[in-house]
Amino acid sequence: MHRSLEPLPANQDSLIRAIATSTRAWHQPEDLASLLTRDPESVKDDLAIMDIAGWIQVREYPDRILVTLSEQAGNLLGLELVRNSRGRTRWQPQAELATSNH
Question: Per the structure, how many domains does the chain have?
């Protein structure tokens, strides 16, 4: 059973938009902070809240942390993960996928 996702404050919504519109799906928190000209610690705090709320997925490695949208967030936003010819994944609107397959 899926729980519904709560609406996000503007500072967290900007993180969702940055991930959703990027040319790659996975991001380091520091890269998102730089992209949005925000303090890295406040971005990490927001990402932790968003992880608990179900908006993002987190992968922790010994030398870095990567984040992307959760599957539920992608579905809610009408996005799907696609892999490009170089093997990178990114989020793409499902409507664009439907028109490119015809």
Answer: 1
Domain that holds residue 90: 10-100
pTM for the full predicted model: 0.86
Report whether pLDDT(31) > 50. Answer: yes
Q: What's 57's domain CATH number?
A: 1.10.10.10
The burial of 25, by beta-carbon neighbours within 10 Å (0-12 exposed, 13-18 middle, 19 or more buried), is given as buried
36: nearest Cα among 17, 20, 8: 17
54: phi > 0 → left, psi -120 to 50 → alpha, else beta; which? Answer: left
- 53 in any annotated domain: yes
Buried b (16+ CB within 10 A) or exposed e, 28-62: ebebbbeeeeeeeeebbebbeebeeebbbbeeeee
Give 12's DSSP letter: H
Asked if residue 2 is part of any domain, the answer here is: no
Which DSSP state fits 4? P
